[in-house]
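Lay summary. Proteins are chains of building blocks that fold into shapes, and those shapes determine what they do. In this project we predict the shape from the chain. Here is one chain we studied, written as its sequence of building blocks.
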Amino acid sequence: MKPKGLLFAASLLAIPCLHVAAQSSFPSPDAILYDSKHKEPKSGVELQGNAIIIRSGVGTPSTINALAFSRDNSLLVAGKDFGRVVIWRTANGSFLRAIDTGQGIVNAVAISPDNQLIATAGQQDQSILIWNVADGKLARSIKIGNPPVHSLVFGLDGATLVGAENGPFTFVFDASTGSEVAKYPGEWSPVISADDRTMITTLKDRIIVRDTQSWKVQKELPRPTKSAGPLALDTHADSYIYGDPFDDHSFVSVRLSTGELYASQRFGKLPKWNPSEGGFAAFDPGSGLVFGHSGGRLWVWNVQDGRTCTSQILYSESGSLSSDGSMMAGGLDNSIMAADKARPGVALWRTSTILKACGMQTQSTR
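And here is the predicted shape, written in a compact code that computers can read:
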């Protein structure tokens, strides 16, 4: 895994940030990406004396709910509260564009493989909106009319858009026309492999494995636990990762071909995963490493030997790994609970920096 096009400006590298907790060797970020200066609405979370006041249905301007890299790693997009979506260039950390989607709390964002379009979904508009990156204008709207969408991903060829609602309900749309390709009531947590050939979802008692060319079911596997939700998929490693908020081991590695838990080195002793708070997990292709975010922290897990390395708390539930595994991003929220009142933004790391600091380099990737 080699860093691609990651040439951070010196001014960004010089920013002091993220003093690492004593129990963690997770490094400070290589850069922090900031939103442009703009008039922010009043936060829905306030500290009045010793009491925290939360206004129902009102977001916080600094909160970043979703992050997504472009396929070529050149762009990073963030979905924020109050309908704001921000795009940065990763090569130098520069702000590219902000889009006011009018969707309230933006739950999901995705960038098309050609970097021309961004798909967004939020809580105040039961539609998926697709925007032109070049000018920030709306290209099309896809009506769904169901509970808010909480995940979106473009297919590798850009022809399809896969997402899931809180319903549970998984859908596939034609990205160019907005027409429905397939829908799967009762299925949630869709995860697509890096080669875009396989998708897994979960039913009440089963894990469904589909071919993404025909959308036909390839196999059905037992759901490991009643609350297991698929998070990451690596078909070449014959493995998927699930999260379970009610298990002492919040993340578990499973053999994709049989549905059996790996006999050893299968558990990640990591911050608890809570699906209502977001979070993610993603395989670093070919390395046996999984990067993720849960409990307000970023982490890396070597599933071969069980070693983990965890960041300090970031007061945010958003993170993302680039498709080639060379970069990792995590939202920084200037929470009223945060000890250091740093300017909110998105922290960006080379994963080689993380692995070096954590002592987790692997021969296959570094």
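What the prediction tells us: Residues 192 and 199 are 4 Å apart (CA to CA).
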